[in-house]
Amino acid sequence: MKFIRKIFDTQKSLFQKGGKFEKGYYLFEALEAFLFVPDHVTSKKGVQVKDAIDLKRLMMTVVIAMIPCLLFGIWNVGHQHFLANGSSVSFLEKIIFGSKIVLPVVLVSYTAGGIVEVIFSTIRRHPINEGFLVTGMLIPLIMPPGIPLWQVALATVFAITIAKEVFGGTGMNILNVALTARVFLYFGFPSDISGDVWTYYGNDNQELISGYSGATPLYLGASTVDNVDSNSLAYLLDEYSEAINQTEFYSFQNMFLGPIPGSIGETSTLMCLIGAFILIFTGVGSWRIMLSVFLGAYCMGFLFNLIGSNEFMLIPPEYHFVFGGLAFGAIFMATDPVTAAQTERGKWIYGFMIGLLTVVIRIFNPAYPEGIMLAILFMNVFAPLIDFYIVKANKKRRLKRATV
Questions:
Q1: Which one of 94, 109, 201, 335 has the fewest beta carbons within 10 angstroms of its own beta carbon?
Q2: Rounded distance between C-alpha atoms, residue 325 and residue 138, angstroms
Q3: Are 184 and 294 in the same domain?
Q4: Are 331 and 290 in contact (CB under 8 A)?
């Protein structure tokens, strides 16, 4: 590291003001800050903030928290592929196959987003922020394993430009950037991100197990809403489990562990909870938002159990925790410190409404059975309004006490 440090020190003058490569200063600074501790400190004047946590450390903590989901996703992509064509292979072979599919998606996401960040940093002459370290990982984890790489690049460029840079860059965006990339693909290329696309079958036209489908349990469940009498949710999942020779394939335990079709990093609730522990333990993620999302989903699911008119309404409320990406969204998306509510009471309201809306969307919109993505984006818009009224109510209460 001393050798690399020496190279940066000798070349730094070329990128500083008046140097030959002055326009590339912020790119140079970003590389230096990524490898080493920044060499600048706050001014001697004014209040000093004394804390070991900077933006780079905070973002790296979130990335570390997502590693369990990434590693499990790599294995699961390989597992689902070989399950679909009936092959029995080793754990290592599944990892190798999954790596060939997942790692290019991660690389494309970081490359496309990094180029956009550098372009805007050069034009606006501001430092390259570390916020994209998280976004660049989130985008691949919420994508289907077979998504075309050019679509990943296009969605990433769109999301960084429209959802973040248009609003002023890191810390100024209203919508979650990664979810903006997903919603762009959902409405722009629906056939590649919805339906039976959650298992990578390969390009060699291998014969699949008879009856096998790569659809998620939510998608299978939504397809029963209009045909309750002959095809209940429980019946359909049982039949599908038998078709692939795994009678417990869609049991609560199996969906909690995650070896089922789905987005690359969101199928395992267990891996998401490990990430939640890291975020809560380090103080990076809000446990209030996480808990309130689950509470909102449970309460709405329980209410539908009481008034349910079809099988999808009557599923146990706790199944919504392991269906789809609710756990992943609650832990890594809803807790985004920029787009979430900031007040303590506001976090409870914000998270609860996300959980509630997720279940409502799942039940009443069979065309889009997931729900968590639209719920988070919707509440992103209302988060400032929630904080506004919470702060306003606090002011009124304090003024009332002061005049008594």
A1: 201
A2: 12
A3: no
A4: yes
State the Cα–Cα distance between residues 391 and 345, nearest whole angstrom.
10
- Judge if 182 and 290 occupy the same domain: no
Closest CA to 267 of 76, 135, 83: 76
State pTM to two decimals: 0.82
| Count of domains observed in the chain | 2
**Separation of alpha carbons 57 and 145, rounded Å:** 29
What amino acid is encoded at 134 in this protein?
V
Look up residue 115 and give its amino acid. Answer: I
In a domain, 151, yes or no: yes
| 10 falls within a domain | no
Domain holding 149, by residue range, is 57-192
Closest to 66 in 3D by CA, of 181, 171, 194, 178 = 178
Mark which of 172, 192, 212 sits at the end of a domain: 192
Report how far residue 357's alpha carbon sits from residue 374's, in angstroms, rounded to the nearest whole number: 9
**Cβ contact 274:67 at 8 Å:** no
Examine residue 122 and state whether it is found in any structural domain, yes or no.
yes
* Helix, strand, coil content of the chain in percent (nearest 5): 65, 0, 35
In order of 126, 153, 181, 353, the CA distances from 120 in angstroms are 8, 17, 18, 34
Provide the token pair at 301: 């699911």
pLDDT in tens, 338-362: 899 999 999 999 999 999 999 998 8
> What does the pLDDT look like over 316-325, one tens digit per residue?
888 889 888 8
